[in-house]
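Thread amino acids onto this structure.
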């Protein structure tokens, strides 16, 4: 497979039309059609369903689209890293992480670097631990910021100085809003929204699950979420109570929502991780050095 042809395929997938894709690529339609047919022959799979007005992807085509996007992104990242190798440190740094107030520590380092090295660009990807780990393992991210519970045994890591506090986000007119803390008994018989990462048993020890004292499976979980913004929307709509981390949802005076911490207190630590034996670009190495100076 040639990278050029993969880009052609992605253009067709994006446009949903060979004609529009050919125009955007400055190719003739017969040329593009022939390239796609050769790709299908090479892979021995039908990738496109050619309708009267629209081209759609077969299941095999959807697999190739995902892989092609990753390949093109990796090639572009590699090219950028080599272009950045010079006396002046420049280039791109890719960081992924979940939603957390502790991102402020990363923001401080980014600000310091940009003052001294304005040619370095940062690319921030937001996602849950599963998403971040997948991209990290494929080399699409240089660093990942992971909120526990999560298994980080296969990575090098630095633990960030603060822990995130767990609690319950609810409407201000909810009966539980009158309480200062939320205890386990309070969570029985009410509809709950839970973080998919927190409830997954990805390691031998899951402090979140342990907090519920073997009663978690008996609770009424009506929905799960990976990032809290949509969960907050559902809470506003009266669907249930979201168990989540503090400082992620607007609980200002104007907001309909409030946050109450769990009792006994439940906190999660955060680690910034990277692949062991990783070969960093000069820009990413500079970022790592700043992390180590600040937190080790």
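Threaded sequence (296 positions):
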């Amino acid at each position: 497979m040639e990278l050029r042809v993969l880009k052609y395929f992605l253009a067709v997938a994006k446009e949903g039309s060979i004609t529009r894709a050919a125009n955007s690529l400055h190719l003739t339609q017969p040329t593009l059609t022939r390239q796609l047919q050769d790709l299908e022959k090479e892979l021995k799979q039908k990738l496109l369903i050619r309708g009267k007005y629209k081209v759609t992807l077969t299941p095999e085509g959807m697999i190739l689209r995902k892989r092609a996007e990753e390949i093109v992104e990796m090639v572009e990242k590699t090219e950028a890293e080599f272009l950045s190798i010079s006396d002046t440190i420049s280039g791109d740094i890719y960081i992924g992480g979940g939603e957390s107030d502790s991102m402020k520590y990363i923001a401080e380092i980014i600000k310091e670097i940009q003052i001294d090295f304005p040619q370095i660009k940062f690319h921030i990807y937001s996602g849950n631990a599963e998403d971040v780990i997948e991209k990290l393992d494929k080399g699409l991210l240089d660093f990942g910021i992971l909120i526990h519970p999560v298994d980080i045994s296969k990575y090098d890591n630095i633990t960030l100085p603060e822990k995130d506090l767990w609690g319950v986000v609810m409407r201000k007119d909810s009966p539980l809003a009158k309480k200062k803390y939320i205890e386990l008994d309070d969570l029985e018989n009410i509809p709950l929204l839970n973080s998919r990462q927190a409830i997954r048993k990805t390691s031998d020890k899951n402090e979140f699950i342990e907090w519920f004292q073997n009663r978690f499976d008996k609770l009424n979980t009506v929905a799960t979420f990976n990032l809290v913004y949509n969960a907050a929307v559902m809470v506003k709509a009266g669907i249930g109570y979201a168990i989540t981390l503090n400082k992620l949802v607007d609980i200002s005076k104007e907001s309909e929502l409030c946050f109450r911490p769990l009792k006994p207190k439940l906190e999660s630590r955060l680690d910034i991780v990277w692949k062991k034996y990783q070969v960093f670009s000069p820009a990413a190495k500079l970022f790592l050095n700043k992390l180590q100076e600040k937190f080790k």
